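Support reply, case 0932

Customer input (verbatim):
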Amino acid sequence: MSEKLQKVLARAGQGSRREIEAIIQQGRISVDGKVATLGDRIEVTQSATIRLDGHVVSVKALQETVCRVLIYYKHEGELCTRRDPQGRPTVFDRLPKLHGLRWISVGRLDVNTSGLLLFTTDGELANRLMHPKSVIEREYAVRIFGKIDDKKIKQLCKGIQLKDGPAAFRSVSYQGGEGINQWYNVTLAEGRNREVRRLWEAAGVQVSRLIRLRYADIMLPKSLPRGGWTELSSKETNCLRDKVALAPGPFNPAETVGKNRRSLKATQIRRAVKRHVQTSGRTGARNTGARNAH
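Our regenerated output:
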């Protein structure tokens, strides 16, 4: 069965489907020496040679492709770009290195926003999680500066006209605060540029802190430090895939390796403690015997 070229390359971790389409239009991809065009289809099982910027790209059949997903806790001040000409820190700087694949960001957070970012090696998964048709809910903690009443809260949930069309929060819940600095949790089901900030500004208040807490059913772990990352299990990853109507991927063998290493380390620690106790016991007995002899 043939698949669209951009879908195959996205699944192979070469970028989101939208990014791959742009690369194809730039004439940077070839199949068997022929420059690819949008709409081209290939069979992954065939011995086709795909090149990106002259370099051979390794692609695998769907059932062989392991999908990986990371949760990353973004700092304020980090950019959601792979490279910055000015040398400023980016969200990709701290991620684990990959061979033959690349981490693809599921959406973006602006430079002054912190919190949960998802990364995956599967461009098709990233594409579906970002697509408006998927209606993926996001949750944010927002600290606002200014006064707001129930009437404005209801307006934020009913809808406000922004420059790029109407927008609304699905829910707004008060979380506390002091003076005119108040915390709210809000949810919405789309990811337009600076949408959370623009909605509050349209209601007449400024956002002084913004933290993303949740994307779909994935929560920002409380134990995760800023700048830290953790990887979803195969089970969690397949739940995320199911949410956007993607078939489950194969089990990630690295999970077993990681568990075995942790188990081995724990066993080594227990053995070391046991040896220490036994040695201390023998030493103590010898010392006691020596004192009694005197």
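We compared this against your earlier run and they match. Two observations from our side: Residues 3-63 form a domain with the Structural Genomics Hypothetical 15.5 Kd Protein In mrcA-pckA Intergenic Region; Chain A fold (CATH 3.10.290.10). The CA atoms of residues 158 and 168 lie 6 Å apart. Please reopen the case if you see a mismatch on your end.
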